[in-house]
Structure prediction request, 133 residues.
Amino acid sequence: MNNEVATPARGVQARHQAELDQGRFLIQHCQGCQHYVYFPRELCPHCGSEALVFVAPEGHGTVYAVTTVRRKLDAGGDYNVSLIDLDEGVRLMSRLDNVMPDAVKIGQRVKARVQIVEGRGLVLFDAVPGGDA
Prediction:
């Protein structure tokens, strides 16, 4: 039997996940070089500065790449995996949730939102009406 007491996760990634768990999507902004950063880091990958602050992005972006993962219906059915370029200049992997997997197109405009699943926040995207590629 393990008698160790779990310690809470610390650091920027733990803070990021804690914010997601509360329904807030944040990215980092470097006060040194003014670049945005995502996935959270301790140092800016552009200039090496430690002066990174969390900010709420506008959340608008464009589908950079997409693939459809095929699954049997009893396993949840097909879903898309998309690379999204946020207007702030960062790229992240997620999925579009309000369209059929095969309907996601490169160049399509999207908007981020946080969905809580079993207590954990997850960044998903919705296609923007009129934002077709």
In short: Helices lie at 12-21.
